[in-house]
Amino acid sequence: MAWTGHLPASREYRRILVGLGAAGVATFAQLYSPQGLLPTLARGLGVSPADAALSVSLATLGVAVAVLPWSWVADRVGRLRAMQVAIVASTVLGVLVALAPTIEVLLALRLVEGMALGGLPALAVTYLHDEVHDEHTAAAAAAYISGTTVGGAAGRLIAGPLAGLVGWRPALLTVAGVCAVASVVFLRLMPRPRGYRPSTAATARTVADGIRTSLRDPALLALYAQGALLMGGFVAVYNYLAFRLEGPEFGLPATVGSLIFAAYAAGTVSSRLTGRWVPRLGRRRVLTLGTLTMVAGALLTLSGRLALVVVGLLVLTAGFFAAHATASAWVGARTSTGRAQATALYNVLYYSGSALVGWLLGYAWSGRGWGSVVTGVVTLAAAALVVALTVLPGDRSRRVVSRSSR
């Protein structure tokens, strides 16, 4: 009998969700932990906010550069084996980053660390489509995305307050220790793959063919645009809001300002709920609502009242992760051949947007302040919304699209 995938009632399904959740923690805690201490890092090294943000942007650029090579490696050795190698390598590099003697070495190591980390987001959703029954991949992908939000929040919330107390090096070493534990959980829990057999026939040409197939699909291009535009604006908000909160307008101490990353809890909830909303409302409708929610949250952060800024951050985070969970799962559902390359391309654009916009809007912050950052974020979200509504298939056709893409 042909393999149809694990069902929610099975022990293996539960192990996959917990294992990938741990991988999400290990990956995103390392990837974004410097974001929680950017003001401390900028002051300690005497660099500008935009230059300090390079510690985040170069790591996300490394992810963007590496996801396609990782998809080729996965075709040859298997999705799970490739993810295992990636998580071990990135854990070692996380320790080396904390011990870097200079800013130049730190940035170089962050780039390489991002390249190692690229193996997880590049392959996790593809792995789910291989191993989980088609009817449950959206819910499983949403569970994985929620794990990434926990990891992203944990890395920032550990690093930020600790940096204010003991310095940035011990803070990053602590995050590396947490990631090591999460990596062990992943390595121990993941069941033997059954839905994909690696092939030595996978060559650079097969990868190129998968890329070409994906780039010929307007709907996939529109989904890639969602990742780039929305993620760019989202990361910029988290990169520079702490500078505003610790500045003269609010005057919060670093240990308090870094607690804004607790707002990631809203993303954990919304990404899990997305798995329920999509079957009821349709992918495009959920994507649209997530984007509009993100815009509303960004506008609320313009307030001079701290309570409204925090509410705006919660709303923005919930909207972003609902949109991201929908778009990333839609990419995997739409493709059957070259799926690894299709999902890898989503990650290329997603992390490229993070790296480029997350860095460039630092100059908007240094130049005209927070209003300029919000203007950029809203403009990017509006562009993503226009692309989604004009290119992506409507909700009435979602069942037809799902069947035709299998």
UniProtKB/TrEMBL annotation:
Q: Which InterPro entries match?
A: MFS, MFS_dom, MFS_trans_sf
Is Transmembrane found in the keyword set? yes
A Pfam family for this UniProt protein?
A: MFS_1
UniProt keywords (A-Z) are: Cell membrane, Membrane, Transmembrane, Transmembrane helix, Transport
What region holds the Major facilitator superfamily (MFS) profile domain?
16-396
Question: Where is the major localization of this protein?
Answer: membrane
Query: Transmembrane stretches, by residue range?
Result: 12-32, 52-73, 85-109, 171-190, 221-242, 254-274, 286-302, 308-332, 344-364, 370-392
Q: Where does this protein reside within or beyond the cell?
A: Cell membrane
What's its membrane topology? Multi-pass membrane protein
Name the family the entry cites: Belongs to the major facilitator superfamily.
Query: Can you name this protein?
Result: MFS transporter
Organism placement in taxonomy: Bacteria, Bacillati, Actinomycetota, Actinomycetes, Micrococcales
